[in-house]
Amino acid sequence: VQNLGGFMFMLAMAELALFAVSGPVNAGYMWSIPPELRPLACALVTITIHICGDVPSPPLAGWFTDYLQKNMDYTEADAWRFCMTVRHPAILEAHLVTGVSTMVTLGQPSHHLASFSGVAGSALLWGSAMFMARTERDY
């Protein structure tokens, strides 16, 4: 890395964007169900997030980088950079869908700011990922 300060700043912005989005998501599903079902909803959302994201993500990323190295003649570092760059549009799409669904579910103008923060966080995350994915020859 040629610009450690820039990398650390963008890494901090990416982490902030990832965690800033979780508040509106939690508020959206909590407001959309009856109070007596909210503890169950919290548990189901957490389990779903882990089953759909944390469990398959590392093996799929590893398989994809191995494929790039063996079949496309990528170096290990370039394969990981490409894998991370390709995966970030999925995060952006997820945040956009979350923002739209929050607006539709709530249907109240006072809550649109929560949806906007999800979209803004996605844009910040995307920009951070593009900065971090640059190779040394780009500098």
Quickly describe the structure:
This protein is mainly α. 81% of the residues lie in helices and 0% in strands. The N and C termini lie close together (9 Å).
Total number of beta strands: 0
Q: Please write the string of helix (H) and strand (E) elements.
A: HHHHH
Strand content: under 5%
Number of helices: 5
First and last CA, distance:
9 Å
Roughly what percent helix?
over 70%
The description of the largest β-sheet is: none
- Poorly predicted tracts of residues: 109-117, 135-139
Molecular shape: elongated
Rg from Cα? 18 Å
Structural class: mainly alpha
Average per-residue pLDDT, rounded, comes to 75
Structural features, described:
By secondary structure, the chain is mainly alpha-helical. The C terminus is likely disordered. The protein has five helices and no strands.
Write the layout of secondary structure elements.
Elements: H1 4-31, H2 38-54, H3 57-71, H4 76-106, H5 112-132
Helix pairs in contact: 1-4, 1-5, 3-4, 4-5
Characteristic key phrases:
139 residues; mainly alpha; 5 helices; 81% helix; 0% strand; elongated; disordered C terminus
